[in-house]
């Protein structure tokens, strides 16, 4: 098995979460297995190994923090596990682009950097879709539950979703921002005005410094 996926990066958070909130529901476990499969296979792509390992580490950190955020929100076990899986899978659409149009996609990332644009705006302009939408479509085709599909599809803009209460998409959104993104320009760690209003409405905005500190702790733990 390739380097990034075989290590203990996944095992430790899974064991800790299971101890605290009970076993992962089967429907979510099958999506976590899908994430591991897709990352493992993607690592065979010669030109994309490093970015894929970086996305794997970012996804794992995002999933772990998203689960902690949900737990602190006193969410049900199902939502906590969905937040974990949503974090793990939120950037799976990047793997589709890296595997299908790798060289062109690197240029799109570079162009976003030069223009100072967010990646999803450049993706929309070039491909007519985004990695969030591609990832959501993949999960939907693989039978992922709607709430998980939404957490992935709206990971950059959960305020566009019609879900107004705290949900796994809220936790994934905040955790993803706090880790700063797995690929250049995907997420620069800066909240937009709509994002700020969204977090304020959910009572999460004042908790941002606390979760920032927790993410810094998670980032110190080597993955793989
Ligand atoms: Fe993303
Ligand atoms: Fe991300």
3D architecture notes:
The chain is built from 13 helices and no strands. The chain has 224 residues and is an all-alpha fold. The protein has one domain: Hypothetical protein af1432. One fe (ii) ion binds next to helix 4.
List the domain count as a whole number.
1
Q: State which percent range the strand residues make up.
A: under 5%
CATH topology: Hypothetical protein af1432
Note the quaternary state here.
single chain
Query: Compute the gyration radius: what is it?
Result: 16 Å
Which percent bin holds the helix content?
55-70%
Overall, the morphology is globular
CATH top level assignment: Mainly Alpha
Mean pLDDT: 89
Number of helices: 13
Q: Which sheet architecture does the biggest sheet show? A: none
Secondary structure class reads mainly alpha
Write the layout of secondary structure elements.
Layout: H1 3-6, H2 11-21, H3 26-42, H4 49-72, H5 77-89, H6 92-100, H7 102-115, H8 119-127, H9 131-141, H10 146-153, H11 168-179, H12 193-201, H13 208-220
Helix pairs in contact: 3-5, 3-6, 4-5, 4-11, 4-13, 5-10, 5-11, 6-7, 6-9, 7-8, 9-10, 10-11, 11-13
The structure holds fe (ii) ion (2 copies).
């Amino acid at each position: 098995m390739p380097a990034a996926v075989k290590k203990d990066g996944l095992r430790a958070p899974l064991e800790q979460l299971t101890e605290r909130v009970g076993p992962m529901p089967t429907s979510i476990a099958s999506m976590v297995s899908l994430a591991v499969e897709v990352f493992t296979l993607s690592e065979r792509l010669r030109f994309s190994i490093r970015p894929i390992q970086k996305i794997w580490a970012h996804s794992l950190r995002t999933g772990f923090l998203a689960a902690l955020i949900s737990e602190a929100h006193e969410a049900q076990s199902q939502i906590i596990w969905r937040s974990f899986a949503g974090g793990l899978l939120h950037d799976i659409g990047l793997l589709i682009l890296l595997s299908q149009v790798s060289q062109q996609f690197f240029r799109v990332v570079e162009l976003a950097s030069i223009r100072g644009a967010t990646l999803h705006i450049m993706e929309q302009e070039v491909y007519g879709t985004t990695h969030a939408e591609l990832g959501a479509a993949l999960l939907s085709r693989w039978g992922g539950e709607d709430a998980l599909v939404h957490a992935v599809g709206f990971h950059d803009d959960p305020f566009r979703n019609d879900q107004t209460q705290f949900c796994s998409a809220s936790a994934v959104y905040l955790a993803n921002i706090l880790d700063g993104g797995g690929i250049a320009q995907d997420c620069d760690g800066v909240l937009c005005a709509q994002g700020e209003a969204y977090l304020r409405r959910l009572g999460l905005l004042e908790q941002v410094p606390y979760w920032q500190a927790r993410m810094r702790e998670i980032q110190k733990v080597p993955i793989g």
